[in-house]
Amino acid sequence: MNLRGKSALVTGSTSGIGLGIAQALARAGAKVMLNGFGDVELALQSMDRYEHTPGYHPADLRDPAQIEAMMRHAAQELSGVDILVNNAGIQHVSPVESFPVERWDAIMAINLSSVFHATRLALPAMRARNWGRIINIASVHGLVASRDKSAYVAAKHGVVGFTKTVALETAQTGVTCNALCPGWVLTPLVQQQIDARIAGGASPEEAQEGLLKEKQPSGEFVTPRQLGELVLFLCSEAAAQVRGAAWNVDGGWVAQ
Ligand code: NAD
């Protein structure tokens, strides 16, 4: 896969799935801009081995004004965003009645509204070039529900619906919009849920196995690298007619 001459912005790419996708895009020769919090230096260093030095923007995606600043910065630094991967996301686990209102608002803002804002701001230039790839990292929770994850499930179903709408609006252009729906991937977001099981008395092995056994028939985690490779496929010419898909990569989770 050769993405030389293309540029990509991956939101929430300082760890986990986003970093795996950023690395895959850089490996294929794209210029990449990272975004997100945490150990930014470590994330940038992990991109050292690739041809282009990665860019970075610290936008907090809860704030539409910061998303606008990030998109302006990306357009200037990358000479336009050809590939937009809307990946940033957070989780909170709690029954509806006790779900903290500020966590609901943050999940809606980061997991759903930021996808709308980045997409609406990236689309005009993609249309003008008649080429673009918008890849939204939804979740199996965009297709099915789990208890105690109301905000996350609502936001991810929203992402899948939004993806289909954008795919229809761009259907007669060289811009495609698709969603990936991963099952369990071992990242900081999931480690929190494993830690909650360990706090409840499980050993680390029991906690991981228990989590997988409940939902993911393969009994194995999906990897950021596998998701990165799928993103590369969606950027290829072979995927030009893959439009509005919600592609589950989940060890069989939603086949049940
Ligand atoms: P992660 O915690 O490793 O990564 C989340 C990223 O989002 C980090 O870079 C973080 O800094 C960034 N982020 C968080 N809040 C932000 C904000 N306000 N502004 C900007 N960036 C922010 O988690 P992950 O598991 O890699 O999750 C990435 C995406 O994949 C999320 O959308 C998540 O819902 C989705 N997903 C994860 C899994 C899984 O099992 N890990 C499964 C399905 C879908």
Describe the protein in words:
The chain has helices at 16-27, 40-45, 64-77, 101-129, 150-169, 188-199, 204-215, 224-235, and strands at residues 7-10, 31-35, 55-57, 83-86, 132-137, 175-182, 246-249. It has two domains: 7-183 and 223-249, 3-Layer(aba) Sandwich (Rossmann fold), CATH 3.40.50.720; 185-221, no CATH class. Helix 1 crosses helix 8. Helices cover 46% and strands 13% of the residues. With 256 residues, it is α/β, with parallel strands linked by helices. The protein is built from eight helices and seven strands, in the order E-H-E-H-E-H-E-H-E-H-E-H-H-H-E. The longest helix is centred in the middle third of the chain and has 29 residues, at 101-129. The site of nicotinamide-adenine-dinucleotide (NAD) has 29 residues, from helix 1, helix 4 and helix 6.
Helices and strands in order:
Layout: E1 7-10, H1 16-27, E2 31-35, H2 40-45, E3 55-57, H3 64-77, E4 83-86, H4 101-129, E5 132-137, H5 150-169, E6 175-182, H6 188-199, H7 204-215, H8 224-235, E7 246-249
Parallel strand pairs: 1-2, 1-4, 2-3, 4-5, 5-6, 6-7
List keywords for this structure.
256 residues; alpha/beta; Rossmann fold; 7-stranded parallel sheet; 7 strands; 13% strand; globular; binds nicotinamide-adenine-dinucleotide
CATH level-4 homologous superfamily of the largest domain: NAD(P)-binding Rossmann-like Domain
Q: In DSSP terms, counting alpha (H) and pi (I) runs of 4 or more, how many helices?
A: 8
The main β sheet shows up as: 7 strands, parallel
The CATH class of the largest domain turns out to be Alpha Beta
Strand content: 5-15%
* CA(first)-CA(last) distance: 33 Å
Please state how the strands of the largest beta sheet are arranged side by side. Answer: 3-2-1-4-5-6-7
What would you call the structural class? Answer: alpha/beta
Record field, number of beta strands: 7
| CATH topology assignment of the largest domain | Rossmann fold
- Architecture (CATH level 2) name of the largest domain: 3-Layer(aba) Sandwich
Tally of individual domains: 2
